[in-house]
Amino acid sequence: MSKEEISLLLFLECRAVDHSGRVKTIHMNTDDMKIAERWNEEGFVKFGRIAFANLTKGRDGTHWCHLSEEAWRVAAAERKARAGRLWIKRIWKTTEEKKNEEKT
After folding, report:
1. Structurally, how many domains does the chain consist of?
2. Which residues touch 26 (CB under 8 Å, ≥6 apart)?
3. What is the predicted pLDDT for the residue at 58?
4. Angle 22-63-67 (CA atoms, 0-180°, nearest 5)?
5. What is the residue range of 56's domain?
6. Taking residues 29-45, what's their average pLDDT?
7. Which element (helix H / strand E) includes 12?
8. For residues 60 and 19, is the Cβ–Cβ distance under 8 A?
9. What pLDDT sits at residue 54?
10. What is the rounded (10 degree) CA torsion for 81, 84, 86, 89?
11. 16 with 65: CB under 8 angstroms?
12. To the nearest 5 percent, what fractions of the chain are helix, strand and coil?
């Protein structure tokens, strides 16, 4: 997966978990929309517009997404890898690390 695809997948995973699948496309660019349309056709991530009658003015987005089992698996693996990369780069110390540092 490309960096852009991973970023989009994690965005859609977040929307699926935290916003019951509603997607604000204002946070997506043209390439993201093309990827989402391709994934919809492939069944990797289902993606489409919410019926007009169910739109809430200014809230939660105009589109929806539903991740396949494979998309959930890939998203979870990438979240775990990302957390590991960010942990290594952190600029703060735990209390245990600070205590151990002071002992030496």
Report:
1. 1
2. 61
3. 62
4. 65
5. 3-103
6. 98
7. helix 3-18
8. yes
9. 87
10. -130
11. yes
12. 60, 15, 25
